[in-house]
Amino acid sequence: MQHKNEKEKLKKEYLMRLRLVLGTELSAKNKIQATGSLAVPVLRYSFGIVNWRQEERQQLDEGTANHSWTALPKSRCRSLVDCHPL
Question: Most buried residue, 13, 39, 40, 64, by most Cβ within 10 Å?
């Protein structure tokens, strides 16, 4: 099995599904549930088959957080920054 090719396919599919979910008009709660039921299983089922290094899993986690943060409307982002400064 060519793990490198499979990892790239899985990453692309996961990010595509994540973008689709985050681009909807769902509430935040429903977006989290939809991500858990539509996007995450793409990766979850591969963890026992494909050799994922810790760094790769961490990059996926950071990428998910970045996509989630940038999916918020700009006005919402400003209010979150004002309420929760880094």
Answer: 39
The Cα-based distances of 21 to 26, 29, 57 in angstroms read 8, 12, 20
Query: 67: which residues sit within 8 A by CB, 6+ positions away?
Result: 15, 18, 19, 22
Long-range contacts of residues 34-39, Cβ cutoff 8 Å, at least 24 apart: 39/14
Confidence of residue 85 (pLDDT cuts 50, 70, 90): very low
The phi and psi torsions of 2 (rounded to 5 degrees) equal -90, 95
Tokens of residue 78, six digits: 């400003």
pLDDT of residue 80 exceeding 80, the answer is: no
What confidence score (pLDDT) does residue 34 get?
92
- Model pTM score: 0.72
CA distance 60 to 14: 9
Between CA 43 and CA 31, with CA 62 as vertex, the angle to 5 degrees is 65
